[in-house]
Amino acid sequence: MRNIFLIGFMGAGKSTIARWLYRHQGMRLIEMDEMIARQEKMSIPEIFETKGEAYFRELETALLESLGQQENTVVSCGGGAAMRQCNVDAMRKSGKIVYLSASPRTIYGRVKNSHDRPLLEGNMNVGYIAKLLEQRLPKYLAAADLTVETDGRRAEEICGEILERCKE
Ligand code: S3P
């Protein structure tokens, strides 16, 4: 199996799905945000605050470009990772790109109590999420080899669909 890159908005379920594939399919797991935080010895909000978003985006690109040699790995990408074409090119070279879609209301329900997403801090409402999602959607869709709906579905069902459609 080649690699699977999970892309999508914050709260789309990328980490949950990646962990499921790791536990049940024996895939290796890379959580981009976690790797970047470990490497920088800082949380994502701290990186945004002290070094700025542009610095964080460079770290994302460097990380994706370093993953070319991986195999059988599921990568849970940060929600903004698919916004840069060079990132998408790096993903496409080594695997399938799966867009996990979710409605603004579902996303809000999943992220509303968290404080580790600087872009939503002070903007934690369905309207803001809908606006940012609308801006990003064309890029998510253009990057994706396949789109999988997550609203109201269990991880097992979503993963079954991903695995089935990745074989095609
Ligand atoms: C971001 C999503 C976050 C994290 C950072 C920026 C984004 O990851 O990379 O806060 O631009 O959408 P998750 O999608 O895992 O929350």
- CATH H level, superfamily name: P-loop containing nucleotide triphosphate hydrolases
For the residues shown, what is the average pLDDT?
A: 96
**What is the makeup of the main sheet?**
5 strands, parallel
SSE pattern: EHEHHHEHEHHEH
Q: Based on CA inertia axes, which overall geometry fits?
A: globular
Within the CATH hierarchy, at the fold level, what is the topology?
Answer: Rossmann fold
Annotation field: number of helices: 8
Q: Biggest sheet: strands side by side, in what order?
A: 2-3-1-4-5
- The CATH architecture can be named as 3-Layer(aba) Sandwich
Q: What small molecules are bound in this structure?
A: shikimate-3-phosphate
Characteristic key phrases:
168 residues, alpha/beta, Rossmann fold, five-stranded parallel sheet, 54% helix, globular, binds shikimate-3-phosphate
Write a concise synopsis of the structure shown:
It is built from eight helices and five strands; from the N terminus they run βαβαααβαβααβα.
Task: Please describe what this structure looks like.
It is a single chain. The protein is α/β, with parallel strands linked by helices and 168 residues long. The protein has a single domain, classed as Rossmann fold, CATH 3.40.50.300. It contains 8 helices and 5 strands; from the N terminus they run E-H-E-H-H-H-E-H-E-H-H-E-H. The chain has a 5-stranded parallel beta sheet with strand order 2-3-1-4-5, with helices on both faces. Helix 4 runs parallel beside helix 5 (85-94). The longest helix is centred in the last third of the chain and has 18 residues, at 126-143. It is globular and about 40 Å long. The mean pLDDT is 96. The chain binds shikimate-3-phosphate. Shikimate-3-phosphate (S3P) is lined by residues 10, 14, 33, 44, 78-80, 117-119.
